[in-house]
Amino acid sequence: MSVSLTVMREIAPSARVAPDAVIGPYCVIGPRVTIGPGTVLTRRIIINGHTIIGSANRIEEGCILGTSPQDLKYSGFPTVLIIGHHNHLGPRVTAHIGTEFGGYLTRIGDNNVLLDGCHVAHDCYVEDRATLGKNVLLGGHVLIETGAVMEDQAAAHQFTTIGCFSRVLARTPVRRDVPPFTRFGSLYGSKQPSVVGIHEQGINSAALSQSEEKELRHALQEVFDDESALQTKIEQLVNMGVEGAAAVLCEFCQRSLQGVFGRYNELYRGQMPPQALKYLPPEVLALIRRQTP
Amino acid sequence: MPEVSRQAVVEKGAQLADDVKVGPFVYIGSCVRIGPGCVIDSGATVTGQTVIGAKCRIFPLAVVGSAPDGSDQMGTCTIGQANTIREHVTINAGCDEPTQIGDDNLIMIGCLVGAGARIASHCVLNNCTQINPGARIDDYVWTSAFTSVLPGGSVGAYTFLVGYTGVETDAPPFAMVQGYPFRVRGVNSERLRRCGFGDDDIRALKEAFRQLYNGSADQINEPALRKMQDRKDLNPHVVRLIEHIQAGLAKRQSK
To answer: Fewest CB atoms within 10 Å of the CB: A143, A193, B177, B207?
Structure first.
């Protein structure tokens, strides 16, 4: 057997790969994939489906992007996975395309860090500057807001929302929405996880003005000192006329309370979530309109 | 002729049915037999004495039939029909007894099926589920993320394992099970309903669970168990539950 020194990779002829993107050995790029300039795919990365990757991302060994969703109802509609710019996807990260009954789209925004073995399931939206630790699992239809952090081996239930600048502690099963600017977890495995404190680094990285921060801290103290009578406490705060970050917090909590088992996005089960219409590429929208009268 | 990518390696002696599709960078060992309609996606590895039934899908970078950790023997692995084996799954081949997987299972990303484990049919193993060597999984079991069934553990039919659960002994059938050491949290009624169980069956099972468990798997209410055994008018599913519990107790006493 002769040894070939040509680098082995398989890029479908119709794939659109920017000329300065780096595609390492043993990568497999499917026919409907777009890869933006400056994106680096190290080695053994498999990208299938209708996947659009922006510029300057770093994607490491063993990542598999754009394969079909792990949902038994999925029947093969050509849905989309969009990855923005400047993301870091560690080794063995997997992300799936969306489903036709959940908004046709899975999206990872900009400047996110996803460490080893993270899984971004169908119809998830990861906004910007989020950090997902090792082996973090997102169930379907999860929304990760800007600046949220999930520590190692945390897992999010379907339709949950992780609020902006919050932190989910390691090995926490998230079964309801995590409010912004809080730390969420259970210190002992068997206890039902809940808000355990304020996420100081989150408040720092949100770069709030002094008065805004003061108001937010007051609201957090007020609401989560103990979580009983959440509804009335939030209504009181809203009536007082909070602004800025505190208003974001109140609005988030009110939405969660409207939802099913504390999960607001569950109200969009089987429907198009509002984010989908915002981000879906026009050609896919046209295809959807043609298929669904 | 099977459709094999020219960048794949298929060893001499491997038997591939006519319409098998093999993607690039796949490795298929010499003692492997793959049934019709299977798709082996890019970068997957199938080795050992592995038999795969019809219409299975193996996703990228999954490893099927490799030797278990710390061993270099070639083992056997039998996989039934219409199974979906997702990305990064590892299925080890068993040396002393074969690893067996039934039909129509969905094994999600990052799962491990150890050497000699046996999985029946229609199961869904969620991401990162660890089925350790020698474990047994019955029909229609669903697991959540990060659950593990430890060596020698077993899970009865129709049982649901809540996330992060560890099963070290025998989880009963029809139950919802949580924690490590696990506790029985109730009857998996939604799943039973979807599988065509009647309301009477579910009510009978709920009543039986209420009598048999004090909220903990290790504290089976034995007087209640004995009383139930003597009854002649039991629902057949409750009889099955009692038989499973008795078999588990007998196994533990003989150790």
So the answer is: B207
